[in-house]
Every structure is written in C-alpha cells, then in structure tokens.
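Appendix C. Worked example: Acyl-[acyl-carrier-protein] hydrolase
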Amino acid sequence: MDSLHCPAARFSITCSYSREHKLRIGVGRFNRIVTAKMHGRILITADKSSRRMVPAASMAEVDSSTKTRIRQNIPTEKQLVDRFRQGMIVEGGVGYRQTVVIRSYEVGADKTATLESLLNFLQETALNHVWVSGLLGDGFGATHGMVRNNLIWVVTRMQLQVDKYPIWGEVVEVDTWVGASGKNGMRRDWLIRSHVTGQVFARATSTWVMMNQQTRRLSKMPEEVRAEISPWFIEKNAIQETPETIKKLDNTAKYINSQLKPKRTDLDMNHHVNNVKYVNWMLETIPEIFLEGYQLFNITLEYRKECGSSDTVQALCQPDEDGAQGVNGKIHIEQPQASEIGDAPSSESPLSFTHLLQITGDSKTEEIVRGRTTWKRKPKAIH
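Step 2, the predicted output written as structure tokens:
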C-alpha cells in the first residue's frame, strides 16, 4: 500500500478500492488523498513523523461525501470566473454576474420569458454566487458555518419588478449581490439586463433569515456565520422599497382555488415547497381571460410559514376595486364559467390583485404567504 507524505496544513487523501481505483478530491479547506482497500485498512499520513491505521469502514461516510463533492465540483476557495456556468465575480470582488440564454422551454406562447423562468434565474444565480465564493457547505446555499449549526436559509420577503420580458434566444446578464438586513438577516438583490444593450429588464430584492433545520424555528445569526458572509455585504439596492403590509384575505375573496396539493417535484432540497410554486398557485386563481391581455409588472410576497408535502393549500385572490371593472360576480376557480368572468378590464392603467395562500385543516387555517401583484397591458405578440 502506498503512502503519501504531505504538509500538515495542506494534506491530501487518495482512495483506492479492490481494483485500485484512485481518486483525487477536495474537501473543505483541504485537499486530501487517502489510499484504501475496501476490506482492509487505511494508512493516513499527515506528516513525516505521524502515521496511523484506521478501519476502512470508518471512512465510508467521508468517502460518500467527497464523491458527491467531486461530482458537484464545489470550489473550496473563491473563484473569480466560473466557466461552466458562464459566471464571474463583479462589484469589486463581492457581486456575481451570470450570462444566460433564454431557452425554448423558458418562454410562453408569446415567445417571452415566463415569470417562473425569471424567478428560477434569481434562485439559481443566488446559489451560484455562494458557490463561487467558496463558502458553500452541504446544503441549499448554506455556508460551512450554517451546516455546523444545522441552519438553512428561508426567505421572508421578496419583490420583483419587470419592465420588459426578454425573448426567446436573447442573451441576458443576471447580477446579484448581498447586504445586511437588520441584525440577523441578509438582503439579496438582483438586476436582469440585456447583454447587448444593457437595458434593464427586471430588478428584484429579498430578505432572508436563518432557520434551524430540525426544530424549524427561526434562529439568530451565529458569529461564525456572520464572519463568513459579512465581507460580501455591500450597500446597494436594486429596488427602493416602500414597505407596506399586505392585508389578509378571508373566504369572502372573489376568487378561490381550494384543495391544492404539493407534488413531490414541488419540494426543494430543504424539504419544503419551493417559492416559485407558491407564485404559480397564486396566479392560477386569476381568470384566464385577464391573463391573456395583461402581464405582470410587479409582485411582492410576504412569507409567513413553510408548506410541506402533506399539506392542503387554498389560494385566495381579490382584485382592487379600481381593477374589478368587467370582472363581475364571485367565482370559484375549480369550476370557472366564462359568463361569470366577463370581459377583461379595458383600462390602460395598471391593475392590482391581493393574494393569500393558506394551509387548510379540520380546525384552523395557517397563512403561508401573502402577495400583491400589479399588471399592465401586454405588448403586441412577437411573430
């Protein structure tokens, strides 16, 4: 069996099994090499004077984890460029920019990017920002310190404004950066712009806090986590927010969609329903005849509670008084009647809706998320 002598501060481990398969891997802050037999023992050499034998079985968990990290190619230190994701570090070394091509499955019938696609861009670039920072631990955007403290990120508020929707085949740049939000929170902002002209298509802002993965309770930010992420904070806002509390709807809402059940594919790596799915549920309560003539300009979401795979969800929607013209009569979306909906509003001014998603049970209901959406007339379709 071969052994390797390495400096104690930077050592490597090479794993070889019954057929002497060898693997060079990176784990945490160190590059490690282990030489092992599947049914034998492992000789680990950290320096020239210290050697010890450990059972191969005790390395099984490390081996599985390191194989996963190899497949994911998670960096252990800051990367200025990510050629695989067409990403790079910007904003003086703390922001992240990713170049994206709008693909065929990311557009709707009008050949423009869907709201779902834009929200997925925000989520993906946020995770990739943590990725290239070298801080990504074994979690959904969680840092090494968060993993050690069994913490995950949860979003409490998000706002997205869309000035113009990119079209199929268009190349866009998505910029994202983070900043402090109070004592225990983090703000993350985004800009989506044309790669060719620099025109801003959309901007977004969000607030995040930490939750204990086991107790599912919110947590203060540990000092070791603050030390990890605070060097990345900058004072820059994509949207100048004017915070307002979104009113809570009740069963007198004009549009109601009941008995919504999460599918397995709706869950993310933190085992709760992804926030993009929440938006889809909200928009499904708006009459189709309205959606055909309008597109979303602004959406604000206030998250109250996570939703799991066993929950039953009800979506409520109420148009503003000035946006209810021509949308007459109360309707239950489970059995829509076109005659009850009437014609879509004819006003050229933006129209707004208030939304609520709630978990329904035998004895009580629990809020998941409140929302506000504002809509403008669609431009002429691209042919």
